[in-house]
Amino acid sequence: MQNGSRDGLPVTTGIFPPQHAASQLFGATPLTDETSTQFTFGIVVQPTDAFTVTLDYYFIALDDRIWVSSRFDVGPAERAQLIALGVLGADQLTRVKFFTNDMDTETSGIDLVATYDIDWVGGNTLFSLAANVNKSKVVRRTDRQSDPTDPTPVYYLSDTDVFVCPGTNGFWMLFDKRGKRINLATGEVWDVLCSDPAIRLAAELVIT
Which residues contact 107 (CB under 8 A, 6 or more apart)? Predict the structure, then answer.
């Protein structure tokens, strides 16, 4: 359970599995398996031995995605039912959330990595530029309306809680084969644990 406050009053929110009594009180149903469809393709360009550019596109469609529901307020009647069911902490519970298969999402993005390898009097230095642009969107929500005469949809995920997360990320990285890497944006320096230069570069791109 999570404790917080609302309008100066203490609030206790519980996040429960769907089979829990608190979840079922608000209509939770058993979880089903997520299913996904995904594909990716990319190109590699190496105009010189020292300069390499890779560009990859990916797409992931995820159906029946497992997510946390919006919050449901626990009123006096619901609290009394939970206490009667023997739910631990029910006397303090003010909000309930639960895990649910309640939406389908699509995520697409582009990864761009450019590296430039320089030999100089002090050794060897590898400049690396990586950028990522991605977007996730909800393409379907499950309508939980149980009254066939009521056209108003009922969602466990409210409009304000729908998962929409576009993003753009990028960083410059200076990397030398003596086992150091430098983030050019922050000046931070780390030791790289891998011994082989090719492995170190792969680890650099994944970890960062």
Answer: 58, 59, 60, 62, 134, 135, 136, 137
Q: What is the C-alpha to C-alpha distance for residues 134 and 178, in angstroms, rounded to an integer?
A: 33
CB hemisphere CA count around 97 (13 angstroms): 17
The number of beta carbons lying within 10 Å of the beta carbon of residue 71 is 18
Bin 196: left if φ > 0, else alpha if -120 < ψ < 50, else beta: beta
Rounded to whole angstroms, what are the CA distances from 49 to 46, 172, 203, 205?
7, 20, 21, 19
Query: Around Cβ 187, how many Cβ atoms within 10 Å?
Result: 7
Contact 50, 80 (CB under 8 A): no
Who has greater pLDDT, 13 or 206? Answer: 13
Phi, psi for residue 200 in degrees, rounded to 5: -60, -40
Give the least confident one: 41-45, 99-103, 147-151.
147-151
Q: Pick from 77, 71, 78, 75: which is nearest to 96 by CA?
A: 71
What confidence tens digit (pLDDT) does each residue in 27-72 have?
888 999 999 999 999 999 999 999 999 999 999 999 999 888 888 8
State the Cα–Cα distance between residues 116 and 129, nearest whole angstrom.
9
- Give the Å distances, CA to CA, from 44 to 29, 114, 120, 134, 205: 47, 10, 26, 20, 15
